[in-house]
Structure formats: structure tokens, C-alpha cells
Design a protein that fits this description.
Length: about 525
């Protein structure tokens, strides 16, 4: 069975430590250059008389449409001039043979067709299916389904979508009928998930041969809908390095053993909560205890005498000053609502804390101070481990680039930060990336816009720190990826329960705890 749904994923989590056998693992993601290599090899592997890759792709598309949209009778197929359009034309011919009312708008011309597209066009016409130029009117009474075969991996990323295609994309996005995208929603850049200038908003995307990272991060999730992969029955021999891997679940842990005690799960401190932002530190601390830490301390940075010294809803949290804590024995989350005060405590934390997660204001302080950057870089060689959890603006500040530059190259940005500072980088946002200096980057698949509300990042920081403290022997990248996945999964369950608005950060903790 070569077709499978990647997103939302099936509940099981296959963990592959060896990332070099592309196609054996549907969760490995390939960039366009690799996809083209795979395509070349796949084309060479097709024996004379066997169906071509385009025929397989078009037939897979037809099967998916018949399964997902069986009642759609009136179908508008938008076929571009390249092979993406060829795939759509093959599917259109099958749909026509199945008795559907199919209207094909084709932007290609006989003078500029690949040989596979030439065959697809000829076969469609032989089957009695007309291919209409753009200026002819769509005659379908009421369109029930659209097939977007305008642009695939051949989209030139550094040039805006042409006016003609942009107008078609605008028309598609205005119509109420669902859209099935061929390989990629047209306009989405396969390698990054950025959009060229406009993009088809698909309900379902069927991608071919290899899954592409752009479907899963940046704008990808918003434009791709449900994502399916068809490997076109290719069994390829040569290994290709993937660019990233999807992270789709949580690794199982044995239940807490009978003979454990609070000391078995480590101590966490949350350093943050400057004036008027104490809530951020409380959120992180509550999340840390929920994630499994044995004891959780809160070190508030506020100087206000009115600052809280007890969380009445979570009296298990202990309020201490940093001076009262033994930094060298703790797992610390620093930054949650920490304001500018954090710059004063960071040097000591960076020098002494063995397991340090840096978020928000801690990252902003480091971005603004070369000496702090040196201290951060010095940690890895001294066997001290760091996780940073920037959102795109914090990542931009750390690298002195723009948010747009971050969002148009999220995988590269996360890897650069991990390598530059010798840490694990959790680059937040839709399709959160978990990068390390050397391992393959992971893209988290869970989560949704309900998380776009203040404080959910503080909850993530605390949750990850709590997991780190409770499971110190688990491979850190996987540990952090599991925590990121749980955080997103809580928001997915919240939506599945029928909520449509934002998920308040304090409630997010409750949803994390009732997984
Ligand atoms: N590899 C695989 O796994 C397999 C690949 N297969 C399929 O082939 C697809 C790739 O086909 P492809 O190479 O022909 O490119 P494609 O996406 O049709 O785009 C080319 C067209 O887009 C146009 N164009 C480009 N940029 C533009 C812009 N900014 N604005 C406007 N136009 C722009 C460009 O025009 P030009 O640059 O020539 O002016 C040209 O007309 C792939 O996605 C998959 O569906 C399957 O059949 C089998 C397995
Ligand atoms: N649209 C979205 N899809 C998936 N995750 C999201 C989305 N918006 C926000 N999130 C997640 O919510 C959290 C927000 O963190 P952050 O921006 O630091 O917020 P704050 O600083 O207010 O706590 C991150 O984990 C981020 O990945
Ligand atoms: K497309």
C-alpha cells in the first residue's frame, strides 16, 4: 500500500534512529534537490511497458478523490503548463471515465510539454475529455470539487507567482468547493513552507514520492489541509539524506515505580516573573510539576514587596530567591516574564547551571549582549546542556536578521542557532522545529492556532523543563520533541472537544495533564 495519510498522523509513533533510508520511512522529509534526485532514479527504474510516474501519480490522485470526495460530480481541474498539470490531467481522464462532469482548464501548450505530459494530454483527448484554455468559461453548473495542478515543485521560489496564475489562485480561494492539491498547494515553496506571493488554500494535499518539509512548517499547515503521501510504488536502492523528520507522538515511559521518591525526578527552578509578569513564571512552574519534576522552585525577579510568595492553587510550588538555591544541582527554566532584570542573573546561571532552558526575555537579553553570547557558547564544551525556545522574533534577534528571514527558512534558522550556540533549538510557531547541532531536525506535527495566545510559550518552557528533570536519561532532542508534541496535542484535543477560540494558558496545563 503506497498511499498513506501523514497529517493528521496515525496514532503510532515509529522512531527511526537511522535517517538515511529515505522512502522506507514516510515521516522523513526531502528537499526539492533530493526529490529531483529521487525522481531521476525513479524514472530510470521504470521499465519499458510499465506505467510512468505521472500515470501513477494521476491514478493515485483519482483514487484519493474517489475515496475522500465520492459524491463530487462536478469537478474543475486546474492544470498548469508543467508536470504538475500533467498529473492533474491524468486524474481528470480517470474521473471523466468514471462518469464525473469534469472541466479542465489547461495552461500548457503542445509546443512546451514534457513527453509524459504529451502522453497524458493525448490520452485524455482520446477518452473524449476536452482541455480548455484559460479564457473559456467554466460550464459546470455548480463546482463541487477543484483540483489544483497549477504549480508543484517546479515553482521558482524567488519569483512571485505570475499575474495569470495569481488570478486563478484568487478565484479558487474564493469558491466554496473543497480543493485537492496535487503534490503541493500551488504557491507553497516545498523546501521552506513560505509562500511565493499567493497560494491555493487546499483541503487535501496528495504529495508524491517524498514528503516535503514545506507542507509541515511555516505556512504549510495552513494551506495544505490533510496531507497524504503516495510513494508511487517505487522501491529505490540508493539512500538519500533527508532534510528533516516529522515528529508525530510521544515515546512511552514506564509508570513511576513504587520505590521512587520526589528526589528521583529532580528539582526544577523557574527563574522569571519580573514586575507585572509574575504569572508567566507561575505558569511555567505549574507546567513543570505537571510534566513530572520532583520539586519545583520559583525564583521571582520582581522587586515588588507585594509579590506573591504562595501559589494558592498550587501550594506545592516553593518560592525561593536564586541565592537560596543550589544552581549547580537544578534543571532551570529561565526567561518566563523575566523582563530586563534577567540580565543580572544570567551570567551565574550560564556559568553554573548544568541543564538550562532559555526562553523569552532571557533570549532577548542574550541577543543584546555579546558577553552573554560568549557565556552561552562556552557551555557545551564544559558539558553543560542548553535548550533555547525562541519564537520567530526572538530567533530573529539572536541572529540579527528579520522575522521574515526566519519564517522563510525555519529549518535553516533552527539549525544555525543550534550550531552557533551549541544547544538544542526549539523554534516555535506552526510546525515547531527541534534542531540540534548535528542530528536530523524534527518538525512537530501537532498544535494549532488555539495556542496563539499569551502564556502558552511559558507553559511550554515549564513543561519541557519538567520533562528534562523527570527523564534526564532520555535522548534530549527526543525528550524535547515529545514535550512539544504533547503541548500541541493538548490544543488539538481542545479543538476536537468543540472549542473554537484560544486555549488560555492556564487551561492548557489542565489539558496537558489529562492526556
Ligand atoms: N518529482 C516527483 O516526485 C514527481 C513529480 N511529478 C509531478 O511533477 C511536478 C513537477 O513538475 P515540473 O518540474 O514540470 O514543475 P511544475 O511544478 O509543474 O511547475 C513548472 C511550471 O510552473 C511554472 N512556474 C514556475 N514558477 C512560476 C511562478 N513563480 N509563477 C508562475 N509560473 C511558474 C513554469 O513556468 P516557466 O518557469 O516555464 O515560465 C512551468 O510551467 C511535481 O510537483 C509533481 O506534481 C509526478 O508526475 C511524478 C513524481
Ligand atoms: N498557530 C499555531 N500553531 C501551532 N502552534 C502555535 C501556533 N501559535 C502559537 N503556537 C505555539 O504556542 C506557543 C506560543 O509561545 P510564545 O509565542 O512564546 O508565547 P508567550 O510568550 O505568550 O508564552 C509556542 O509553543 C508556539 O509554537
Ligand atoms: K499544485
Amino acid at each position: 500500500m503506497s498511499m498513506q495519510r501523514l497529517c493528521p498522523p496515525a496514532p503510532s509513533l515509529p522512531v527511526h534512529e537511522d535517517p538515511f533510508l529515505l522512502l522506507d520511512d514516510p515521516f522523513l522529509l526531502a528537499d526539492t534537490a533530493t526529490t529531483r534526485h529521487v525522481e531521476t532514479q525513479a524514472l530510470a527504474a521504470v521499465q519499458p511497458g510499465e506505467t510512468s510516474l505521472m500515470q501513477r501519480a494521476g491514478h493515485a490522485l483519482y483514487r484519493l478523490i474517489m475515496a475522500r470526495y465520492p459524491h463530487a460530480q462536478n469537478i474543475w481541474v486546474l492544470a498548469g503548463a508543467g508536470n504538475n498539470g500533467g498529473d492533474a490531467i491524468v486524474a481528470a481522464a480517470w474521473l471523466h471515465k468514471a462518469g464525473k462532469q469534469v472541466h479542465v482548464t489547461w495552461l500548457g501548450s503542445p509546443a512546451q510539454m514534457s513527453s509524459d505530459t504529451t502522453k497524458a494530454v493525448a490520452a485524455a483527448q482520446q477518452a473524449g475529455l476536452a482541455l480548455h484554455p484559460l479564457d473559456s468559461e467554466v460550464t459546470l453548473p455548480a463546482i463541487e470539487l477543484m483540483i489544483d495542478g497549477l504549480l508543484g515543485i517546479g515553482l521558482t521560489p524567488d519569483r512571485p507567482v505570475s499575474t495569470k496564475i495569481a488570478q486563478i489562485i484568487a478565484a479558487i480561494n474564493q469558491l466554496p468547493a473543497p480543493v485537492v492539491a496535487v503534490d503541493l498547494p500551488s504557491g507553497l515553496i516545498a523546501d521552506t513552507g513560505a509562500i511565493a506571493s499567493c497560494c491555493v488554500r487546499a483541503d487535501t494535499t496528495l504529495t508524491f514520492l517524498c514528503a516535503k518539509p514545506g507542507l509541515f512548517t511555516a505556512e504549510g499547515r495552513a494551506y495544505s489541509g490533510e496531507i497524504w503521501l503516495d510513494t508511487l510504488d517505487m522501491a529505490l536502492s540508493a539512500p538519500f539524506p533527508p532534510v528533516a523528520r516529522l515528529w508525530t507522538g510521544v515515546l512511552p515511559h514506564p509508570p513511576r515505580a513504587h520505590n521512587t521518591h520526589k528526589g528521583s525526578f529532580g528539582d526544577v527552578a523557574v527563574v522569571g516573573g519580573a514586575d507585572s509578569m509574575t504569572g508567566a513564571a507561575i505558569l511555567a512552574a505549574r507546567a513543570a510539576i505537571g510534566a513530572g519534576a520532583g520539586r519545583v522552585y520559583v525564583s521571582l525577579l520582581t522587586q515588588s514587596p507585594a509579590a506573591i510568595a504562595l501559589d494558592t492553587l498550587h501550594p506545592e510550588l516553593m518560592f525561593r530567591t536564586i541565592q537560596q538555591l543550589d544552581i549547580s544541582k537544578l534543571t532551570i527554566a529561565c526567561g518566563c516574564g523575566a523582563g530586563q532584570e534577567v540580565a543580572h542573573v544570567l551570567p551565574e546561571l550560564l556559568r553554573k547551571c548544568p541543564r538550562l532552558l532559555l526562553d523569552a526575555d532571557a533570549l532577548n537579553a542574550i541577543a543584546a549582549d555579546a558577553a552573554l553570547q560568549q557565556l552561552l557558547k562556552a557551555r557545551a564544551p564544559m558539558q553543560m546542556t542548553t535548550v533555547i525556545t525562541p519564537h520567530p522574533l526572538e530567533a530573529a534577534r539572536l541572529l540579527n536578521i528579520t522575522v521574515d528571514q526566519v519564517q522563510t527558512s525555519r529549518l535553516k534558522t533552527a539549525k544555525t542557532l543550534a550550531q552557533h550556540f551549541g544547544c538544542i533549538c526549539v523554534l516555535k510557531g506552526s510546525g515547531t522545529i527541534i534542531a540540534t547541532p548535528r542530528q536530523i531536525s524534527l518538525i512537530n506535527i501537532s498544535g494549532n492556532g488555539a495556542l496563539a495566545t499569551a502564556g502558552t510559550g511559558d507553559v511550554l518552557a515549564g513543561w519541557l523543563t519538567g520533562r528534562w528533570s523527570a527523564f534526564p536519561d532520555e535522548a534530549l532532542q527526543h525528550n524535547m520533541a515529545c514535550g512539544v508534541w504533547q503541548h500541541g496535542d493538548a490544543a488539538d484535543r481542545w479543538q476536537q472537544a468543540g472549542h473554537t477560540g484560544p486555549l488560555p494558558a492556564s487551561q492548557l496545563i489542565d489539558w496537558l495533564l489529562c492526556a
